[in-house]
């Protein structure tokens, strides 16, 4: 007779007689901004979807909270996404909080003693604390099968990313390391796969013979939002471009994978990123940096970035970063990939835009050709758009540009719910492989060095403007 599994809970009476393996999610950094604003709401929706029956949740950080304080944080976060069903209530009722310094072995030992069943550890910690915590865990070991979820930025440069990779490889196999990039859980980012590989019409023209340039832009109206502790040490290049926008580039530019198995998709992404480098290897010409000065965005008055509480102006942290890259392979050689992200901007623009070359020849007699064709993939609002030149109304020989637009509904899960699901199901497809994390640092490192050496001026732009005048990316009309 087999012993009943203490980690198994019976399913509801009347339902098929399967046992449910109860997983534990241990959140390190449970009192932080990420945990409250993104991770717990994503978890709430995932629990509501029924994907993690019987989940046990443990929160931990240095704050001297008790279970009740933590429970109300979880309940508030779940409420923001309407996660208030029976399964979510049970997680809230059962969850516990353990104060700990997670860089100390003895604290981690106590924490792990409280965990049972298959374990997922989420490091919602500042990058340096994550590295120290992982080092302490490596000294004491983790239960077999444990999956680790690590936030971006992964390390603080290529060398630290490599050391962290080496350290993690002593703890668990690579497939159990989930380096998170929540953009990979966004439904429109995932839609890139369907758009490119489930249609006949786009893939044959996605190459240097037909594409003039590719822009990947994430302009936000949000300012610092009290995140100086993290953001002032990172800046826009590391916060957005080195991580999220390079992941989008990889999905846009990679070769078709034969299947969506993790090793295929992650292998294709690694291959294309290995071919990616700065345009003409010139970090000065191929980058721009700027930070916002006082101004008004959406009726909200923002102070100078440098005067925000917690900011050290001497660091010269940028709130807007642009880089131009080349993907040096047969398909893309010669096509500029322009990546940009900025905060406190007037126009929210979150999209990838593929601009096609002019037609080989517009017949004489057909007038009004002004704008090239463009394919737009919007990351918020989630939209797909195609800008085309057609014979407009009125004079039939005069061209007009029209926009065909499709709106996507929100995905089944928010981005954090999606990446959490990957970890609970042991599927690393949506997480960043170790070599890819290092490759992304390799791509931006010359820019970081040029900025540190003062070779690229730090411009200013008023909050609520369209950014610095010498942008490498012109406005895209339409
Ligand atoms: N916030 C966001 O929007 C996003 C954040 N991220 C990433 O998530 C990570 C966390 O960011 P965020 O939540 O904003 O940061 P916060 O500073 O808000 O939170 C950090 C958390 O880590 C805890 N902590 C720090 N040191 C220790 C320690 N030695 N032992 C135990 N707990 C410790 C803090 O606990 P205490 O307060 O008790 O010190 C706090 O709970 C970062 O890597 C960031 O890049 C990624 C995407 C978005
Ligand atoms: O990781 C981050 O992403 C957000 C933007 O992503 P969204 O899904 O919230 O739109 C960005 O504001 C933040 O600075 C960055 O850390």
TrEMBL record:
<dbReference type="GO" id="GO:0005829">
    <property type="term" value="C:cytosol"/>
</dbReference>
<feature type="binding site">
    <location>
        <position position="220"/>
    </location>
    <ligand>
        <name>substrate</name>
    </ligand>
</feature>
<dbReference type="GO" id="GO:0009051">
    <property type="term" value="P:pentose-phosphate shunt, oxidative branch"/>
</dbReference>
<keyword id="KW-0313">Glucose metabolism</keyword>
<feature type="binding site">
    <location>
        <position position="186"/>
    </location>
    <ligand>
        <name>substrate</name>
    </ligand>
</feature>
<comment type="pathway">
    <text>Carbohydrate degradation; pentose phosphate pathway; D-ribulose 5-phosphate from D-glucose 6-phosphate (oxidative stage): step 1/3.</text>
</comment>
<dbReference type="GO" id="GO:0050661">
    <property type="term" value="F:NADP binding"/>
</dbReference>
<comment type="similarity">
    <text>Belongs to the glucose-6-phosphate dehydrogenase family.</text>
</comment>
<feature type="binding site">
    <location>
        <begin position="101"/>
        <end position="102"/>
    </location>
    <ligand>
        <name>NADP(+)</name>
    </ligand>
</feature>
<dbReference type="InterPro" id="IPR036291">
    <property type="entry name" value="NAD(P)-bd_dom_sf"/>
</dbReference>
<protein>
    <recommendedName>
        <fullName>Glucose-6-phosphate 1-dehydrogenase</fullName>
        <ecNumber>1.1.1.49</ecNumber>
    </recommendedName>
</protein>
<keyword id="KW-0560">Oxidoreductase</keyword>
<dbReference type="GO" id="GO:0004345">
    <property type="term" value="F:glucose-6-phosphate dehydrogenase activity"/>
</dbReference>
<dbReference type="InterPro" id="IPR001282">
    <property type="entry name" value="G6P_DH"/>
</dbReference>
<feature type="binding site">
    <location>
        <position position="343"/>
    </location>
    <ligand>
        <name>substrate</name>
    </ligand>
</feature>
<dbReference type="InterPro" id="IPR022674">
    <property type="entry name" value="G6P_DH_NAD-bd"/>
</dbReference>
<feature type="active site" description="Proton acceptor">
    <location>
        <position position="244"/>
    </location>
</feature>
<feature type="domain" description="Glucose-6-phosphate dehydrogenase C-terminal">
    <location>
        <begin position="195"/>
        <end position="470"/>
    </location>
</feature>
<keyword id="KW-0119">Carbohydrate metabolism</keyword>
<feature type="domain" description="Glucose-6-phosphate dehydrogenase NAD-binding">
    <location>
        <begin position="27"/>
        <end position="191"/>
    </location>
</feature>
<feature type="binding site">
    <location>
        <position position="182"/>
    </location>
    <ligand>
        <name>substrate</name>
    </ligand>
</feature>
<dbReference type="GO" id="GO:0006006">
    <property type="term" value="P:glucose metabolic process"/>
</dbReference>
<feature type="binding site">
    <location>
        <position position="239"/>
    </location>
    <ligand>
        <name>substrate</name>
    </ligand>
</feature>
<dbReference type="Pfam" id="PF00479">
    <property type="entry name" value="G6PD_N"/>
</dbReference>
<feature type="binding site">
    <location>
        <position position="152"/>
    </location>
    <ligand>
        <name>NADP(+)</name>
    </ligand>
</feature>
<comment type="function">
    <text>Catalyzes the oxidation of glucose 6-phosphate to 6-phosphogluconolactone.</text>
</comment>
<dbReference type="Pfam" id="PF02781">
    <property type="entry name" value="G6PD_C"/>
</dbReference>
<keyword id="KW-0521">NADP</keyword>
<dbReference type="InterPro" id="IPR022675">
    <property type="entry name" value="G6P_DH_C"/>
</dbReference>
